[in-house]
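Same chain as my last thread, 318 residues:
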Amino acid sequence: MPKTIKTTYTAINLETGEVYTGIDAPQSITRGETHFWQASKDFFATLLGYGTVESKVVANVLHRTDPKTNRIACTLPELRKELSCTRDTVASAIKKMESKRLIIGIGQGVWMLNPRMLAMGNQTQIALLMAEYDKYVSERTGAALVVGKYVLKNPVTAEELPLPPECDDKLMFLDGNTQFWKIYDVFFGAIAGLSENELRVLLHMMDINKSKGGGTYNRPLTVIADEARVSVPTVNRAVKKLKKRNLIIRYCNCNWMINPLMVANGNKRKQKVLERRYTGVQAENEAKLKRYRFRVLSPYNDGKPFIPVGLPTSPQKP
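reply #2:
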């Protein structure tokens, strides 16, 4: 495995003159099954408010994001052709994403994903992305650029980049002690085409606003219907689709698990426990289904189709 190349920056406190060295940011960020995006709880709120086809556009745009730069390069005709939808649908979805501050246009056919909502890499890399995003927002809206008291100095180019105010509190980009949700690439494909109500049910089961937890949901589905103000049949249909897409699984009555291989919250130890439990429940459910089908096929465990006596084995002629 090739060694990751890093650039070591120097942070300077403009108020006190203190200098911090040894601040590393990766130059190459890869994505795969084990690599995850760091998502804030605000990110999930931006997934609501789209039509069924519009949600496919959102998922496609998120999947196209370059994890190193948070940029998305694609034209509206490309999206329309790939998703087989109308131009108005694509334009409407992009406009909504911009109004929710999920993305911002930075050029012809180029957008930047808000790193405060979704980003990959260590905290230094995210701080650099936030500074770049703020610069584009200032240029686009004409608002004054708000900066904090720290700047990062590149030792190679000697360029000094002002960091946003979020980095003022205990040097966020140094301690790395931030809470976030882990999102894997397969999550984008799983939510593509879901309706707003179906997403509401999923987010309710994840309980985004909890600082801890988020791996299980242990209440009746009627609670979702009551709190989300949707009908019970709507919740039942949503749960059926979420199960089919492997986003959730039921492990006993009124107890559900969120797939930690798609979206997770908590430390590595907790996630590993949830992954083992989820895959274990999956295997158990598949074994039960297999035994049920086997029993229907033949009560003699010979693997042959079973036809009770008296029933025709083939269509009868009139």
